[in-house]
Specification:
By secondary structure, chain A is α/β, with parallel strands linked by helices. Chain A is built from 14 helices and twelve strands. The first copy, chain A, has three domains: 43 residues, 434 Repressor (Amino-terminal Domain), CATH 1.10.260; 130 residues, Response regulator (Rossmann fold, 3-Layer(aba) Sandwich); 151 residues, Response regulator (Rossmann fold, 3-Layer(aba) Sandwich), CATH 3.40.50. In chain A, helix 1 packs across helix 3, helix 2 crosses helix 3 and helix 10 packs across helix 11. The first copy, chain A, binds a DNA duplex through helix 2 and helix 4.
DNA sequence: CTGAAAGCGCTTACAG
DNA sequence: CTGAAAGCGCTTACAG
């Protein structure tokens, strides 16, 4: 900066003003400074700038495993929205250790970088863990449904998705349904989805066989058993990746969807999911990203909104080819139209 | 920091030393400082620290659209490797505008943050564009095959993948193959893959029908035509997402793989790709991430290696159910075994 | 519109 | 082992 000032024949103050885009500079000065800076390849040091101005336009992002397509897409959209809002996002991904040390570790590093705000897009951190940081900087959760507490949150409308899928399945005439229930500690959003689905099914008089799950393959063997014993005619999963594993297992077992059993997933974010014809519910990733950024922008802005933000973003049912009326007794276990033949 | 020093009854210098883990402090002081810091919730300001020490342990990452599963996975693995190496990654994603302003824009912002090094995981930036930055900080490209120039690069072994897939197809007896050729400016890695595949096929005496493509659906209509006219018995795509679109189109057209035409993709990163049975080649994402981080760590370290780094990471063929010998004339266009029935 | 000076929160020789 | 002091690259009142 010193060099630029010297070469342009002005003071460092002026160079600073030029780069900050503050009005108080003559056009002549501005042009000269820009020209010289360009020539010298000068790029202002953001760190020093923020240190001096006690301001920061960078927002920290805590993300859950971007390898999961739903989070990968969310990440991309968040970046785009942030870019449009002139906010720089610094992100840290959590994988492996789903909770505990690494989450808090990352949180501390982000705090050390003196980010202006935080977007937390991982269910692994509880709101209680976030509390101590909330006093220092604004935090917006993205994707984890929060019903209570004071942490701002924008999340998918898990009630709507549960209702749509449950209604779809019930309307087809299913009366006994297996439900993969992801355990709360494994994935909170999935847990909420499953719970809501159970409630919606129950409200429609459908019998439920809950299958607790942590790993992606948990409960699958039970599904196969239940289908063979004709105890269920449908299985609902709180995530597409789980539904895919069900389809895989059915295939191996010589069974098919929806011939032998109807199958639903949730999120519909995976590219090619349509090829597989999985009946699912497309969550509103794009809108979630947009709202998360808009809210954090407002919170770190000059006139932060008061009160706790709590927004729900809608999605839409994606009817596929894996849900159909239950097989009739006369048709038996191997009906004419199977998923494979329809493909 | 001032507060911590006061509360601990020491100077700021000592507090600094404690947090830097420098040996020159008594155990008593160290413990006292840590205790007080914990109590006051003090987290050192990374910006100020780096400014004062003229050092930085943060590495910039330029990523291409994490919504693409291959990049999403790469991103996650890079973060993990960086975490293990005590390096903080600041990432910026490029999507939409594949080249030009936004890429350079992001590059400048990263430079403004005075990152110690750069990992560039997008093909949209040419090495020539990177040159001016190379003088200032170490840069490692990840995933874009570089044959010349002075930019460090670790990339997928596109020769190996092309050879494996081409050999697989040729060995099955195919003698006329359509090849989706992504244009250089749309995706350089795909372009290289396609080109290499063409060479490998040619070397095996296979006739090639090249189909230039930019958008994900380009060339697909031609494939359908060629299949109907019996001019090809296989189609090879430089990316799984393209192959999925081919499968989709075949389905719509009432054709099937490998009954009517064999299909191959490349990358095999998509979850559920096995369910679709797509024959592909799994690229070594994990290893690439590991090497990229290891190299940047070495380059920003005390004893940077000399010479231009150029590493290739291997992958492996993933045989699926979409490649089989060409349909025989006697069986005609609708042979007995179709993908769907095998599923 | 412009410059001199103090200060942002740290680190690091330099003396003890 | 410890502290006083200068300095990292900027910004920002405060005077002109």
């Amino acid at each position: 900066m010193e060099d630029v000032a010297a070469a342009a024949g002005v003071s460092r103050s002026s160079v600073s003003r030029v780069f900050l885009g503050q009005g108080k500079v003559s056009d002549a000065t501005r042009e000269r400074v820009f020209a010289v800076a360009e020539w010298l390849g000068y790029v202002p040091n953001v760190m020093a700038s923020e240190l001096a101005s006690r301001g920061s336009s960078v927002v920290g992002l805590l993300l859950r495993d971007a390898a999961n397509p739903a989070y990968g897409l969310l990440f991309t959209r968040l970046q785009e929205a942030a870019h449009d809002a002139s906010i720089t996002l610094i992100s840290m991904t959590i994988s492996g250790d789903p909770r505990g040390s690494r989450q808090i570790d990352s949180l501390r590093r982000l705090m050390g970088m003196r980010v202006a705000g935080l977007i937390v897009a991982t269910g692994g951190v509880t709101s209680a863990q976030l509390e101590p940081f909330r006093e220092r900087i604004p935090i917006v959760r993205a994707g984890r449904p929060e019903e209570t507490g004071h942490i701002h949150a924008v999340s998918y409308d898990e009630h709507a998705s549960a209702r749509a899928l449950a209604a779809h399945v019930a309307d087809q005439g299913h009366r006994s349904v297996a439900l993969i229930v992801t355990q709360e500690h494994a994935s909170y959003p999935e847990y909420v989805r499953a719970t809501n689905t159970a409630a919606e099914l129950a409200a429609r008089g459908v019998r439920i066989v809950p299958l607790p799950a942590v790993a992606l393959t948990d409960g699958i063997a039970d599904v196969i058993d239940l289908v063979r014993r004709r105890e269920i005619t449908a299985v609902m999963c709180p995530a597409d990746l789980r539904a895919l594993n069900v389809l895989r297992a059915l295939d191996v077992a010589g069974l098919s969807a929806p011939g032998d059993v109807s199958v639903t997933g949730c999120d519909a974010v995976l590219p090619g999911i349509d090829l597989m014809g999985l009946t699912s519910y497309r969550i509103g990733v794009e809108r979630l990203a947009e709202r998360a950024v808009a809210n954090i922008a407002a919170l770190i802005g000059d006139h932060p909104p008061s009160g706790t933000i709590r927004e729900l973003v809608p999605g839409r049912l994606v009817p596929g080819r894996t849900v159909a009326p239950p097989p009739t007794a006369s048709v038996g276990i191997a009906p004419a139209a199977t998923l494979e033949q329809e493909l």
